[in-house]
Design a protein that fits this description.
The complex is a heterodimer. By secondary structure, chain A is mainly α. Chain A has one helix at about 20-45. Chain B has a domain at about 120-340 and about 350-380. The chains are: A mainly alpha, B mainly alpha.
Chain lengths: ~50, ~375
């Protein structure tokens, strides 16, 4: 199969491919960061910091 | 993801943080995303004046407003499209170095992150001032447009991932809803671009023809604003159509646009659910590609819905809601840069014009439905003039 020059490196790593355990791990990382940002910003407001 | 890639990941995995790779591996890609982002948009905390956003704004001042709307806003310039455009240009002219690719894979972490943080942006109570019947028309139009688009997708034998992106973009009126749908539908980047270009082009056609189609029906200015807000395309295209009809209609379009905006999440969640259930019912059908690879309802989408409910309960007061949205802009600017770099012009063109035909068919049917619904409601006294 021809290599997609935009997304795939010489080792066969395709950065737009997303599935399996790696996808779950990425989702979890994103979810945790989002919740931390939302919680911190909201908490700071309730404390009257801005 | 090919098998070798999955096995390589399983071998090196220590915890979920392995998906972030090492700092050395991801730094070049992260820097590429960072510089594309800060040269595309005016982002919080970055005092860089040399942005695509500022260039478009300056050009808008040169061109002058078109029916009170900036030209580049009509073309859908925003914090998602500017970095996609810059990424597309860089990727297609100079290519994407291999050293960037580990870092660019952060797009898959940034997408759920950004979508969850969008939750506090949609406060549904903002729309309650519009009144029951206008809200009902807006809601029915959203679900009907998405359903009809998916039906036309089947009729025209368009790839269902491509059709789902069109359904999301057209029904919500926000072409970048397609980008939000991308990880849920498992659509390809070129399908998202092809679909979104089609939705933007249809919006331009609709904003030009809607005032002409509606003129013989003598629709009151207030409800002309409603038809334009729901039946055209992005915010500026809708306002163009309304102002082209009359100044008052334009003012009312601003008023009704709130209704379209706050129920936007319902549009892309609906498209995802329809395609997801369809796939679960037809696990062996090779023509059903949308949501393929998603076996359970995504947890992060559940978190987004939870945050959206909290927003509707007014947990996030105005300053927090704006601060969170500034983070969303940062997030989507970075993710859109990686998306733009991944797509070749050849693939976008290769996706053909069938998607555009589906968009036009569904979009024109929506205009007919809206005009008929509003005329009927006025005749029966449900909408007061």
């Amino acid at each position: 199969m021809e290599r997609n020059q935009h997304t795939t490196d010489l080792d066969g790593f395709d950065y737009m491919a997303n599935s399996g355990i790696e996808e779950k791990d990425r989702d979890l990382s994103g979810m945790l960061i989002a919740l931390i940002i939302i919680a911190v910003l909201t908490f700071f407001q309730y404390l009257g910091l801005y | 993801m090919n098998n070798a890639q999955a096995i390589a990941y399983d071998v090196r995995r220590k915890s979920f943080l392995t998906s972030l790779y090492t700092f050395r591996e991801v730094l070049p890609g992260l820097l590429a995303m960072f510089f594309i982002a800060i040269f595309s948009n005016n982002l919080a905390g970055v005092p860089n004046p040399f942005t695509l956003e500022n260039l478009f704004q300056w050009l808008d001042w040169v061109i002058g407003p078109l029916n009170h709307q900036p030209f580049f806003q009509i073309l859908n310039s925003n914090f998602v499209w500017n970095p996609i455009l810059l990424g597309l240009i860089i990727g297609n002219i100079f290519g994407v170095p291999d050293s960037w690719k580990r870092g660019l894979s952060y797009i898959h972490m940034l997408m759920p992150l950004g979508i969850i943080m969008l939750g506090p942006h949609f406060m549904i109570f903002h729309a309650f001032k519009l009144g029951f019947w206008p809200i009902l028309i807006i809601v029915v139009s959203l679900f009907l447009t998405a359903t009809v688009t998916l039906w036309f997708t089947k009729l025209f034998r368009l790839d269902d991932r491509h059709g789902s992106i069109i359904a999301g973009g057209l029904s919500t009126g926000d072409p970048h809803a397609g980008v939000i749908l991308m990880p849920l539908i498992k659509a390809k980047g070129y399908q998202v671009m092809n679909a979104s270009i089609g939705v933007i082009l249809f919006g331009i056609i609709a904003m030009l023809i809607l005032p002409l189609i509606a003129a013989p029906f003598n629709i009151p200015e207030k409800y002309m604003g409603l038809v334009a807000a729901v039946g055209v395309g992005n915010g500026s295209q809708s306002l163009y159509a309304a102002y082209a009809s009359s100044y008052e209609a334009g003012r009312y379009a601003y008023w009704f646009d709130v209704g379209r905006h706050v129920i936007m999440p319902a549009g892309f969640i609906y498209v995802f659910l329809v395609m997801f259930i369809r796939k679960l019912r037809n696990p062996e059908d090779p023509n059903i590609r949308a949501t393929r690879g998603i076996n359970k309802f995504p947890v992060w989408l559940g978190v987004f819905i939870f945050i959206w409910v909290l927003a509707c309960l007014h947990l996030f007061k105005e300053p927090a809601h704006h601060a969170i949205f500034n983070m969303v802009k940062w997030d989507f600017s970075l993710a859109a840069a990686a998306l733009g770099l991944s797509i070749s012009f050849r693939d976008i063109i290769g996706a053909g014009v069938r998607g555009f035909v589906v968009t036009c068919a569904a979009g024109l049917l929506r205009i007919v439905f809206l005009l008929a619904a509003i005329l009927l409601c006025i005749k029966t006294g449900l909408l007061t003039v």
